[in-house]
Design brief:
The protein is mostly helical and 95 residues long. The chain has one domain (3-83). 76% of the residues lie in helices and 0% in strands. It has helices at 3-36, 46-83. Helix 1 (3-36) packs antiparallel against helix 2 (46-83). The two termini are 35 Å apart.
Length: 95
């Protein structure tokens, strides 16, 4: 596969994963706050928050890890393209 296409698809996947990170991050934030400060959000039970927090932590970690990998691909792609670029073909046309 071409490095440019690979970087293109990595960017698309990275943007999609960003949506999941935002949603899962908000869940992690709210449940974490409700565990640390139980009276701050009265309608959330700290025990239920702990269960939801621990269940979403695995998904958050996997999605965040995938996003880091796609971000690394996007970061390294310009350098790899420049390094592995083939020289232009000689067409032997008169000037």
């Amino acid at each position: 596969m071409d490095i440019g296409k690979f970087s293109y698809y990595a960017r698309k996947i990275h943007r999609l994963l960003m949506l999941f990170i935002v949603v899962l991050g908000l869940v992690q934030m709210v449940t974490g706050m409700s565990m640390k400060y139980p009276g701050m959000i009265p309608f959330i039970d700290p025990t239920a928050a702990r269960l939801l927090h621990s269940q979403t932590a695995t998904y958050f970690s996997v999605v965040f890890g995938l996003q880091m990998i796609t971000g690394l691909v996007m970061y390294l792609a310009p350098t790899l393209i420049k390094t592995f670029r083939k020289p232009p073909k000689n067409t032997d046309l008169p000037n």
